[in-house]
Amino acid sequence: MINTEGMVAETAAKIYTDLCGREVPHEAEAGSYPQALWDALAENGLPLAWVSEDSGGFGADYDEAFGAIWVSAEAASPVPFAETLVANWLLDRAGIAIPGGASSFALLVGKTASVSFASAADHVAVYNTVKSEINLYKTADVATGDGQALSPDGDSRLDFSGATPVASAATNLSRRAVEALILTVRAVQMASAIEAALNMSIAYVSDREQFGRPLSKFQAIQHQLAVAASESAAATMAATQAASALAQNADDPEKAWHEAVVAKVQIGHSVEAVTVPFHQVHGAMGYTQEYDLHHYTRRLWAWRDALGNEHHWSKLLGQELAVTSPDQIWKGVTTGAWIAS
Amino acid sequence: MQRFNFPVVQPDPALEELRAELQTFLREEREAGNFRPEPECWMASADAEFSKKMGKHGWIGLTWSSQYGGHDKSALERYIVTEEMLRAGAPVGAHWIADRQHAPMLLEHGTEEQKLDILPRIAAGECYFAIGLSEPGAGSDLANVKTKAEKVDGGWKVNGQKIWSSGAHMCHYMVAILRTSPADGRNRHVGLSQIMIDLSLPGVTIKPITDLSGDAHFNEVYFEDVIVTEDCLLGEEGGGWKQVTGELAMERSGPERFLSSYITLETALHQLQGKLGSDSHARLGKLIANLRTLRGMSWGIANLLHQGVSPETEAALVKDLGNRLENDLTLQVRALLNDLPAEEWSDEMRRILNMGILRSPPNTLRGGTTEVMRGITARQLGLR
């Protein structure tokens, strides 16, 4: 389980309960940005949770903010809370002053990268994998590509090649360390969204009647949701395991890379196994814009592509395991120690 | 509020020392030719000599008091022992069930005399138990059992038949669920009790059943006027249903629910190291990610059980996911082995893979079918 106790997560939970009711993601998508929600998060300093106290943040443990991220994804957060946490983490570690306001992040290999909340974020913190440096851009300075976004957050393709950063700094953060954080944040969001959509599905089939009885009384429906529940539980375990690896290796996040990749692969493959039954049991209602289910399923479809899809990461993990001894693989499976110490 | 409770529990250095000891023992035993690795070893591979060796090392009866021949260790130590045995495909089938479920049952319900008599022999790897649940008319519908026990002077008289009793031909006892009084109208859960039956008693007949792989590990067991003493009724008279469902829930999340076929992968990895083509990498990566996640879930439940919490839903979820993974593992290994020309496969690889395929049908049946697991989950989700 992701720990949702503690000051950061509990404050986030209160803010989301008060200011992100079920209508808010709908309104946000219709163009009415929930500024009050963002302001409340910002006033409480939550997007600075992982920023060191010297730089004005909380210096919170990884665990604490992961609880808040769980809460935000459960509410289908229409503001870039998790994204700003990641951006600020990157900037703080590179010694770049935190710009304030909403930010997003990218891991740049070439010229372009997918960035969620590109329209809501004032800035984008970019980890340049080639130069091992972190660059801060104003979103308005970066060219946005055309294309259909999967998620209501707007996962736009941004072209950084013509833009000048407002701040830059070399970093000793390795690519794997950055990947470990990003993949784990997405894993926690996804596990939370899967469980939220599972809960919606259970409520829906208990309420909706056909053939004179609730859908929940049909064994075919029960079994579909039982399987989805097992995938949901596995997703939460994988996310928690990754979050825990980061917490254990706070000084060297690169050591959490394998557990983060395991979570990415596990949950990425789970998405299809859950979104199919969730939509199936909801019937036509489930894919209307008016209904809430798509706030989760579209985000899941977008998040499973973050930094490359589950096939890409399965391959990357497998490539490494293919030259790892069977003893070491077993050690990884049983203890999470994937590399000989 | 999260729906499922799976704590993440860090590895414990003391347990890792135990693991290293086990690995050394298993390597030496295997190199000495004392066992042949088998998939589904906890069901299909039994060797009394091997069980006795494990007993000497103190690897059976870990969880109970030394007063009864046990080793005063925790269920977590036992977990490490079981997962290492499964990884090696070791012949642990003789003592597995007694160690896993009947010893704890005796500790809870047995008389002092029974505990002193039987538990030390289980811990020594010398005394084995069979499960007495299924009958010809009672599979998933377990409450339909017809075997019955009538009160007689000083004990019980048992008549009826059990089936699919793994290892009964080499077991000393069976704990059977049977009817001690009639059902209460439609409520068939009342009137069931658990009785321990010494399989050497007059009136017990055991007939082997050969399965499609050629294994003859399970049996039909007939009881004809078998007389057992009064203290053989374990627990509450009429309370058998509750006892048995509680027991089943405890054992659904152990490593044997997702690692039974791991030896197939282990063997293949030795053959394939450095030889996998790039098309196979994704397959291997996904398989290992699934295994790591399941291990996390199963280990989390083991820790909850250790704390005295019995998470029934979580256990059912692990069994459903784990049984699917065991079968998927064998299929994925078949695909991975395409990267090695068939003439380079070792005989052992071919044997283990084929046995794994032949032994795959029971994975999603024993200990509660996948359909029963999904029914339990659905009930917990509030759908039934």
Mean pLDDT over the residues of chain A = 96
> What does the main sheet of chain A amount to?
4 strands, mixed
Q: Report the average pLDDT across residues of chain B.
A: 95
Give the end-to-end Cα distance of chain B, rounded to a whole number of Å.
22 Å
Q: Can you list the strand order of the major beta sheet of chain B?
A: 1-4-5-8
- Which regions of chain A are unreliable across 5 or more consecutive residues at pLDDT < 50? none
Strand share of the residues of chain A? 5-15%
What is the gyration radius of chain B calculated from CA atoms?
21 Å
In short:
With about 350 residues, chain A is an alpha+beta fold. Chain A contains eleven helices and nine strands. Chains A and B meet through helix 6, helix 7, helix 8, helix 10 and helix 11 of A and helix 8, helix 9, helix 10 and helix 12 of B.
How are the SSEs ordered, and which strands pair?
The complex is a heterodimer of chains A (341) and B (384).
Chain A: H1 7-19, H2 23-29, H3 35-43, H4 62-74, H5 81-93, E1 103-108, E2 112-116, E3 123-128, E4 133-138, E5 143-144, E6 155-159, E7 167-170, H6 175-207, E8 209-210, E9 213-214, H7 219-248, H8 257-282, H9 293-303, H10 310-321, H11 326-335
Parallel strand pairs in A: 1-3
Antiparallel strand pairs in A: 2-6, 3-4, 4-7, 5-6, 8-9
Chain B: H1 13-31, H2 41-44, H3 48-57, H4 75-88, H5 96-109, H6 112-123, E1 129-132, E2 148-152, E3 155-163, E4 173-179, E5 192-198, E6 204-209, E7 218-229, E8 233-234, H7 240-250, H8 262-272, H9 278-306, H10 312-336, H11 347-358, H12 370-380
Parallel strand pairs in B: 1-4
Antiparallel strand pairs in B: 2-3, 3-7, 4-5, 5-8, 6-7
